[in-house]
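Here is an idea for our session: we take a single protein and study its fold together. To get us started, please write out a protein record for me. Start from the sequence, derive the backbone structure tokens from it, and show both lines together. Go ahead whenever you are ready, and we will take it from there:
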Amino acid sequence: MPIHQMLRMARGAIIELDATEDDEVQILANDMPIARGQVVINGNRIGVQITEMLPRPIELR
């Protein structure tokens, strides 16, 4: 989900996830994977704990 779409969401909006608490997830920026993480549930809050930063792709010039 693009950041601009998240910023327009109202408080209490629901984002459906395709992952459970035991799943590893990828964090993307500009459709490029930048990190891996673990879904974390704390009470009624859900977050992602980053477990690994991925190396930047080498830019060809």
